[in-house]
Amino acid sequence: MSVSPSAAPGASPAPGSVQEVASGLRSVGYLPGESTALVSFLATKLGKPVLVEGPAGVGKTELAKALASFLGRELVRLQCYEGLDEAKALYEWNYRKQLLRIQAEASGTGWDAVQEDIFGEEFLLARPLMSAIASEQPVVLLIDEIDKTDQEFEAMLLEVLSDFQISIPELGRVESRTHPIVLLTSNNSRELTEALKRRCLYLWLDYPELEHELEIVRLHAPDLRETVARRLVEVIGMVRALDLKKPPSIAESIDWARALLLLGAEEIDSETFNETMSVIVKHRADMDVVAERVGLKLGAPAATGPGGATGPAPPDPVAPHVA
Amino acid sequence: MSPERPPPAAEGLPAPDGLPARVLEFGEELRREGVAVGTSELLDAFAVLREIEWTAQEDFREALAATLAKSQEDRRVFELVFERFFFRAVELAAAREGVREEDRAILDELTEEELEALRAEIAAAIRDGAEGTMRDLARMAIAAFARRQEGSGVIGVDVQRIRRALGLRAEPQPDLPPEDPRHDGLPREALRRFEALLRRELERSQIERTGNLPPARPLGELDRALPSGPLADLAAVHRVVAQLRRRLATQGMQMRGHRRHAQVDVRRTMRASLQTGGVPVELKFRPRRPKRPEIYVLCDVSTSVTSASVFFLSVLHALHDTFRKMRSFVFIERISEVTDIFEHERNFKTVSERIGSDAGVADISGYTDYGRVWSEFLVQVEDDLHPRATVIVLGDARTNGRDPRADIFAQIAAHAGRTFWLNPEPRLYWNYGDSVIAAYEQYCTAFECWTTAQLEDFVRALTRPVVSA
């Protein structure tokens, strides 16, 4: 749970077309698929929450960050976990401060005066949902991994998501001054309730197609040679097609591209692959499968031309420094 | 080559003001296919359509999908229904207006060389996955083969005939020259799309010939069934099961709501009270852990359920990860316990191989013998069965004419608390031929299980808290 500072000062006006959203997201380093741009556009237009589902590592959380920085809004993030309750998500009374206050006033003042005092905004700890709603500037609210919470919490969210208001018994109702853009992400580990789905637009993010992923990799590792990048994406595709415990995500393709860049690899042959495989495959059992099914197909380094030898050799001087 | 067609969404709808009616009909059609489309979803759809150009087909479809289909399964049904609905809408409008395409006659008798060139061109388009080219070539192919008077009139048959005549296969064809795209085999997915295009074009010409639409066919269960082919689809099955596993792991969560009998955890309450100066403002409760049932699974691995047993074994594998107290058996003619294999092998493939080689469940005929299986099972576990145990049988209940011995099965069911039967066959085929599921069904709860939805129904039943009688 954190409130990150907004990337650009001053909120930009709502975008006018799907293309504008698409190019805006591109400009902040997120390459959206067609439906992603469309649904983001609709979310800004209609002010409805978006439920984003898809396998791990396809950029669900990144989408929220990109939207926030493109729209020049603050990103308020609520990370969900099992057992998350209202006190952690909405608001909490600052007990310690209240106690101190009572002790400071110990003698002389009547109960009524103190009670007036200790249930004021001063003693309220705003948690992510509360701060998203109470914010002066419009924000992007990211509710991450909603499927990790229990159903009660989901029910509580309904009030927030449909009316953008929170009722606090001691204070009254806090209504939103601005309309936040809400993104909920889910890994689909639990069926969400119909009531919640009904209030959301639905976006399914899947692993990108080859060309699209190539573009993403090139964007994040621009110094990697075109041929290597293409080969890399093809190999990732092959690995994903296998039956693995954890297929490599987009973030891992990017990591791998950077690793290859550091090593100055000119070619992805079986030797390079076996050495760097641990960047994309993270399970013991998976590694065996991948080495057997993909590694062997790539061909030995000797057969792939003179520039193929890499491995533990010192990094190629051509390779630029990557932080 | 045919003139470029505008996208169907723009073509068939009479006018923008006819659109709301179409969208409502479309929603109605989705409901008929079991997608929960409420009024609020439709209102959202209209709100969305105000914001986008309804003439851009992709946007139109994505916008409708975002508001109407709210899960991955729904999305799949949505795609199928969308295709069908708007295809029909277009054709209906075309038939009404009397629009006909005249370009079908351009292809005269093709020489063998020209045919070969067409073949290569189609194969190249499929390899590259170029949708537009594929569509045009599909029309060419149909026109070319219609000349040869081989049409059977049945669309499904014709599609396969054309595909065979073009020599399009997913498997590598090493006898072709290496520069031919078919040499290394064609991508299965693109090949499937080409077939769909062929089917679509054949339907179109049929409608044009007869001047009216054939009756709409509801989506068969088969369209959404679990992929059941071997290896290629194994990964897909496994993904479904992985999802299932996560759901199973979080199943107990609904129990949290019932705090009525919660127990105060004194230690944690005291600890928390330090924050508030020793005043126990916040009570901490002991978490309620739902009782995991003890499970016995019997899985049929005979040939009559081959396609389903891959699926079953992976379900079994998933269950093993979730329920600690679980014993698995596989059977054909005899029964064999495979709990160990599952416990020590994490890799699904090795598990299925080892079961194939070590289990030794087939005797002579390789046909399932339920009677013998029950008696062996009862001998092995009779002493361990108790009212909290759950017995699950995965099988098609086809006895090959042998005695079902439902009486022994009844004994098993009586010893165990709950007994479930998962049948991979559609309910339609139950008790037909040598299926004797009715004999067993009176002692257990039987589920048909060949789609993900059905599997989830079963999981819900399985994880429901056991109410002791």
Please, could you describe this protein's structure?
- The complex is a heterodimer of chains A (323) and B (469).
- By secondary structure, chain A is of the alpha/beta class.
- Chain A has 3 domains: 2-88 and 128-204, P-loop containing nucleotide triphosphate hydrolases (Rossmann fold); 91-126, no CATH class; 210-308.
- Chain A is 43% helix and 13% strand.
- Chain A has a 6-stranded mixed β-sheet with strand order 1-3-6-9-2-10, sandwiched between helices.
- The longest helix of chain A has 16 residues, at 226-241.
- Mean pLDDT of chain A is 80; it is low at 1-11 and 302-323.
- Chain B is α/β, with parallel strands linked by helices and 469 residues long.
- Chain B folds into 4 domains: 8-97, no CATH class; 103-211, no CATH class; 258-290, no CATH class; 294-463, Rossmann fold.
- Chain B has helices spanning 8-12, 19-32, 39-51, 57-68, 72-97, 112-128, 131-147, 155-166, 188-210, 221-224, 234-249, 266-273, 306-322, 339-344, 348-358, 370-381, 406-415, 437-441, 452-463, and strands spanning 294-300, 326-331, 335-337, 389-394, 418-423, 445-448.
- A 6-stranded mixed β-sheet of chain B has the order 3-2-1-4-5-6.
- In chain B, a hairpin with a 3-residue loop joins strand 2 (326-331) and strand 3.
- The chains are: A alpha/beta (323), B alpha/beta (469).
- The interface between A and B is large, with 39 and 41 residues.
Give the topology.
The complex is a heterodimer of chains A (323) and B (469).
Chain A (H helix, E strand, L loop, with lengths): L1 E3 L13 H10 L6 H13 L3 E4 L6 H12 L2 E6 L6 H4 L1 E3 L1 H10 L6 H8 L5 E3 L1 H7 L4 E6 L6 H13 L1 E4 L3 E4 L5 E6 L7 H5 L2 E4 L5 H11 L5 H16 L8 H14 L6 H7 L7 H10 L30
Helix pairs in contact in A: 1-2, 1-3, 10-11, 10-12
Chain B lengths: L7 H5 L6 H14 L6 H13 L5 H12 L3 H26 L14 H17 L2 H17 L7 H12 L21 H23 L10 H4 L9 H16 L16 H8 L20 E7 L5 H17 L3 E6 L3 E3 L1 H6 L3 H11 L11 H12 L7 E6 L11 H10 L2 E6 L13 H5 L3 E4 L3 H12 L6
Parallel strand pairs in B: 1-2, 1-4, 4-5, 5-6
Antiparallel strand pairs in B: 2-3
Helix pairs in contact in B: 3-4, 6-7, 7-9, 8-9, 11-13, 16-17
